[in-house]
Amino acid sequence: xxxxxxxxxPGNYQIPDAVRKPAxxxxxxxxxxxxxxxxxxxxxxxxxxxxxxxxFADINTCIVEQKPGPLLFGQADGISCRTLEIMEAxxxxxxxxxxxxxxxxxFWEPDRERPEYIKRxxxxxxxxxxLSEFTHSVVNQARLHDLLLAGMQNSVTHLVPHYGRRxxxxxxxxGMTQDLEAYPITAQFECSAEGQPIGQExxxxxxxxxxxxxxxxxxxSLSIGLDGDSANKAWGVMDxxxxxxxxxxxVKSFIQSKEHGAVMLVPREGGYLARLYVELDLLNxxxxxxxLDIGVDDIIAKAQLILRPYRLDVKEVAWWxxxxxxxxxxxxxxxxxxxxxxxxxxxxxxxxDACHTHSPKGGWGLNTSLPDGFNLGWKxxxxxxxxxxxxxxxxxxxxxxxxxxxxxxxxxxxSALVATRxxxxxxxxxxxxxxxxxxxxxxxxxxxxxxxxxxxxxxxxCSGQNNQDLASGYVIGQRFHxxxxxxxxxxxxxHLGHLIKADGRWRILIFGNQQTPLDTGSATYQLIQFLEHAxxxxxQRYTPEKADIDSVIDVYAVFxxxxxxxxxxxDLLWPAKGRYGLRDYExxxxxxxxxxxxxxxxxxxxxxxxxVVRPDQxxxxxxxxxxxxxxxxxxxxxxxx
Length: 641
Description:
Layout: E1 34-40, H1 44-53, E2 61-65, E3 78-79, H2 81-89, H3 94-98, E4 100-101, E5 104-110, E6 118-125, E7 137-138, H4 141-153, E8 162-163, E9 165-172, E10 185-193, E11 196-210, H5 217-221, E12 226-229, E13 233-244, E14 252-256, E15 262-267, E16 273-282, H6 296-306, E17 312-324, E18 327-330, E19 348-350, E20 356-357, H7 364-384, H8 394-418, H9 436-444, H10 446-450, E21 484-487, E22 493-495, E23 506-511, H11 523-533, H12 538-542, E24 553-559, E25 576-577, E26 582-583, E27 588-590, H13 597-600, E28 609-613, E29 619-623, H14 628-636
Parallel strand pairs: 1-2, 1-11, 2-8, 5-14, 11-19, 23-24, 24-27
Antiparallel strand pairs: 3-7, 4-7, 5-6, 9-10, 10-11, 12-18, 13-16, 13-17, 14-15, 15-16, 18-20, 21-22, 21-27, 23-28, 25-26, 28-29
Helix pairs in contact: 1-4, 1-7, 7-8
């Protein structure tokens, strides 16, 4: 898709440039008196959390934003493979069609013969290719917001944000926090409409999540400190429409000059727009980038110097900013002040930039913030709907803070490598002469950058590591790595990962062994019978009366045999559902001859296995087909029946 030919226009890229217009500012709406969950901030973390909670009609959610309306342009642009997987789980696959896909990286260094000019050293394929069925992409963060907002509004709850709300105070009544039916938190807001103050409001809530950015009021109200280093290097960033003879304007490029600093160039969606990160000056201690009095013309002039001998004629600047590089992570992600292992049930959380700050060049922010919201969303829903024990909420901080710490470590390395001059407080002697270090770093960190290698530690929702060899390609704690199988009922190829939608349900994927599932003595047949009929079965124990059998735990089967007929299989694999008892024909698959999922994911053909997948698509456990009791024990560790 191509757009922005005659100037940058934000909004829905499905609408032609000529008629695309930003939506009008949303009207003022009063806050409700009380809700189950209050989300402060409409960034990626907040909107993802709201998008997840919007799926549940029995949960009252309120999301507020200080700005007068939705984001229109600027901020983040990189969309990792994992983020695209999550957006697909929300049925927001438009990003795949609209975004610029990163397939190559180019590296530029000073020309040895003419060192005042730059020269391309080489191009390589992007290291993240093949880690997912999706390709690392680039698109305006506002467009991702639009899709999350549309999903919220089109959900069963029709959730929309309350704009023009600045959080003034957050109070938690400690005497009420362990009563899960209580509303122990009171939030007070200053309200505005069209930029004009109109008074104050307050709201009582059961749980609050601060997604309100690096200067988070929620984080400060919870007395959560930030650990790490302050900013020491300024960079300029701009989204521009340019005329240039630089040959790699449509390739992600790392450019280092001899005397003038570095540029990281990122092609943007639509075929014409480009983003440039431009290295500026070192900052003194306690100095902020805003104090440098740098304008967009200064950033353009610096970029033109770095790109010599190539011409860079900027025709339009869609957005620009100056920022400083600093890496910090919150000391905790919830309101448990003392021992994180205590029995206190957290009622307040921070997510996204409220709990980790870093440079934007690596694409870390959005792609770490969005999974923060995805991780917390299903857990809050499960506790509020009384499906799971409240101890589940404590796992959010444990799982996501480890990721944030990894992010900070990686960002420090990335920021040092991309810059041509050392940070403040270090030697000012240049020690790096080429871009090979950057290339090697990207190759080493490709799984983390893509989000596909993020792995949660063993816990009561990540167990069964002793069975990992039954399916070596489905790493326990990592996201379920999708692969295609053939749907038995109609022969359609289907990505198994796309079956796992963001609907709060658990999945059990049965990968059958070499015995036919029609053999009553086979482990596959006996497992299906146990799940469908045994009183101890998690399906029988946790499915509400009169609800569909897959309403809490959804079961799929992938067989090695290709000559099966769905009508001969047990009812569990093509269950009768809904008010009319219609049959679901989309739960049974077989492995294709080419790109066989058993081979691709290292599944033991002789034994088969069960793969238990969490609502956030992370592998929770792997079990032998005959491990009925262990399966029951796994779910009994946190579910309420």
